[in-house]
Amino acid sequence: MSHGHHAHSHDHGGHGHGHGHGHGHSHLPAGTGDRAILMAVIVNLGLTAAQIFGGFVADSTALIADGVHNLSDALALVLAFGARRLARRPASPDMSFGWSRAEILAAFVNYLALIAISVWLAIEALGRLASPPEVQGGLVVALAGLALVIDLATAALVWRASKDSMNMRAAFLHNLADAGVSVAVILGGLLIWAFGWQIADPILTLAISAVILFHTGTEIVPVMRMLMLAAPSDADHAAVAASLRGVEGVADVHHIHLWQIDERRTALSAHLVMQEGADAPLAVRSAKAMLQTLFDIDHATIEAEWLGEPCSDHRHSHD
After folding, report:
1. What is the per-residue pLDDT across 30-40, written as a single tens digit (0 to 9) for each?
2. Which of 38, 46, 57, 60 could hold 135 in an S-S bridge, CB 3.0 to 4.6 Å?
3. 266-274: strand order across its sheet
C-alpha cells in the first residue's frame, strides 16, 4: 500500500460527514505536480508537431510513429491531469464515493488509445515492408534525439506523482515507452544514414508497435479489474470469510462482496448470521476493527441477522 493510505482510512464517504476527503488526494503540494504536468504537456505538444511534420518531410513512418506516440503522450498527460484534478473533488450525496475513480477511467481510456495507435502503426509499417521509401536519415536522427531528451524530461516530471497513482503511472509508462521508441528511431535513422538500409524504418515501426502493445496489455488488466468491481488482486476471499466467522457470536457469514473503490480504498459488505443471545452490535464493531487491522479494508458495511431468520436479501442469493 502506498504511504498515503491513511488519508482515506477514516472517511466513510456515504455517511454525509466528508471530513476525510480534503487532504487525501496527492502527496505533493497541490501546485507542484500540476505545474510540472502542465509544462510537460506544452512541451510534448510542440515536439509532436515537429516530429509529425519532420516525418512527412523525411518520409519516415518510424518518425511519424514516434510523433503520434508523443501526441498520445501529451493527450495522456492532459487526461491524467484532468482526472487528477477531478479526483480531488469531495464526495457529495450524488457521488458518495467521491471522484477518485475518475483516475481509473482516465487510465483505461489512455491505454485503449495506445492500443488503437499501435495497431494503426503496425498496419502502416506492414504496407511499407514490400517497398520501403527513401528516408532522410539525418533529419530522423535529429528529431528523434530531441524527442528522447524531452521524453526523459517529461518522465522525470511525472515520476514523483506516478508513485501513488495508477493514472499517473499510465502517463509515466507512456513516457518511458516513448523514450525507448526514440532510441530505436535514432538507431534506425543512423542505419539508413550510414548504410542506406531503408527497410530499417518499417521494421522499427513494427517493433515500436509491439513494445507499446506489450506494455499496455500488462497495465490495462488491473485497471479493468477495478472497473469491473473485482476484489483486489491480493485479497484472499477465504481468509476474509474465515476471520469473519471467527468473530465472537457469529454462526455464519454470507453475501461477502469485496471491491476496490480506488487504488487506496477497499470496500466490503457482508451479512453476519448471529448465534442466539449474541451481542450483534459488538460483533459488527469487532468485525470492522478486525477487517481494518488484518486486511486494510476501511469501508465495511456489515449487517447482522439471526440464525433461523430468513435473509432479507434472499432474492439475490446467488453468492
Report:
1. 455 677 777 77
2. 60
3. 250-260, 266-274, 299-306
